[in-house]
Amino acid sequence: MEPGLRARKKQATRAALQAAALRLALERGPGNVRVEDIAEAAGVSPRTYNNYFSSREQAIVAGITADRAEQVAAAVVGSPAATGLGDAVVTAVVGLYADPGDRPRAAMLMVATSPALRACYADTVTSIEGPLAEAIAERCPGVDPLTAQVLSAAVGAAARVGLRQWLRPATGAGGLVVTSGSLPDLVRAALLPLAPALDAAAGR
Amino acid sequence: MEPGLRARKKQATRAALQAAALRLALERGPGNVRVEDIAEAAGVSPRTYNNYFSSREQAIVAGITADRAEQVAAAVVGSPAATGLGDAVVTAVVGLYADPGDRPRAAMLMVATSPALRACYADTVTSIEGPLAEAIAERCPGVDPLTAQVLSAAVGAAARVGLRQWLRPATGAGGLVVTSGSLPDLVRAALLPLAPALDAAAGR
DNA sequence: ACGCAAAATTGCGCGCACGCAATATTTTGC
DNA sequence: GCAAAATATTGCGTGCGCGCAATTTTGCGT
């Protein structure tokens, strides 16, 4: 059964809201954009905005991190069967942060600047946990569903730590090493300590 | 240097706010308590409330989960040196959820009922991550600080999953096993998959 | 004891999130 | 096609979170 007019229109307005939010935030700065503005730009009532997104920042970051979840899940189930679960997951997640061009880079800079956006952006990794858990369960039919959930939640948490580390504005004083490498490397480093747990669960 | 009058008074009003919030929430139900009420009960301005807590629910849950963080950290560094890091951490965290009496149980029931409180309660485990990371670093001087952070974040995430599982209102339909055991057992089960990662990091 | 600087409290105003009920639009069944 | 059921959009009202500036309280040196 195809989506139907209703669902398609819903997706359309959602996309319009995301696009409008991102555009306005980029050209005015995130602090100078009210929900009213976004709603107007998308041709919809302010109240309707909050039917789609439950915070002002959500639409902006949603415009950046569109379909992370499906990406990771697909990468995990699609990785060669020979590789261990740890490698598969780490590679899949790191793949999300390979630099994809120029427009996104400006967006990331904006995210790094605004604390509210940082927080919201970190929260988006939560959205991958569900699909990732399913992917793990599918790849390793033997594991307890709860274990799969736990592992994916742990992966999410680790990714958040890596993210946080990357967009830390350089604390200055006490920090011994402030040089944060490239994002993918940082995320990989953050995920690595979890590999033993993943492999142990996979190996039963 | 002892706290000084200033800091002590601050702690006093914070405690008063927590107590008032918890009391009012228990006797009226969490939905029927406005910030204004809590502030008034604590003899302070509504604006001041938000100088101490940044959400309406925070004061309530703070009244329940007082000094979790120090507890866990102490338990980790204080556990016998012979036990592996995995066992030490698991035991320490599980120890937080040993049933401590009757008043807390009523409070937990209230938390389980209100979605907003559930979310806020889950967020509180985040507060243990910092101290836990320090404790891990102290116990195993060899490990990378980033690794310590990652592991404690993962532990927090796992604990959240256990919590969520426990206070799930029984989805009914598709759930094969809805019988959730006791909270401590559930949390232990959730933490167990991470033990390999902890031990691996500790053993270098 | 006194006054001054630091810090906490307070009032004010703005925008946001959301429940609720009314309204408009789409889908379904005939 | 068309009425009815299902679902989406909107306006309104309430409470919340917080930046800002004025005011009060606290701590300390002399």
Describe this structure in words.
- Chains A, B: Residues 34-53 bind DNA.
- Chains A, B: Keywords: DNA-binding, Transcription, Transcription regulation.
- The structure is a homodimer of 204-residue chains.
- Chain A is mostly helical.
- Chain A has 2 domains: 4-63, Orthogonal Bundle (Arc Repressor Mutant, subunit A); 66-203, Orthogonal Bundle (Tetracycline Repressor, domain 2), CATH 1.10.357.
- Chain A is 71% helix and 0% strand.
- Chain A contains 12 helices and no strands.
- Chain A has helices at 4-28, 35-41, 46-52, 56-64, 68-78, 85-95, 103-113, 115-124, 126-139, 145-166, 183-191, 195-203.
- The longest helix of chain A has 25 residues, at 4-28.
- Chain A starts with a helix and ends with a helix.
- Chain A binds chain B through residues 146-147, 149-151, 153-154, 156-158, 160-162, 165, 189-191, 193-197, 199-201, and chain B through 146-147, 149-151, 153-154, 156-158, 160-162, 165, 189-191, 193-197, 199-201.
- The structure holds a DNA duplex (30 and 30 nucleotides).
